[in-house]
Amino acid sequence: MSAPPLNPDLLLARRAAAGRVDAWEELLALYSERIYNLALHFAGAAEDADDLTQEIFLRLYQNLRLYRGDVPLAAWALRLSRNLCIDHYRRARRERRAAAISEEVLTLMPAGGDDPQAEAQRRQQLRTVYRELEAMSEDLAEVVLLRDLQGWSLEETAAWLEVPVGTVKSRLHRGRIELAGRVAAKLAAPAPRAAVPALEVEPC
Question: What is the pLDDT of residue 99?
Answer without folding.
Answer: 43
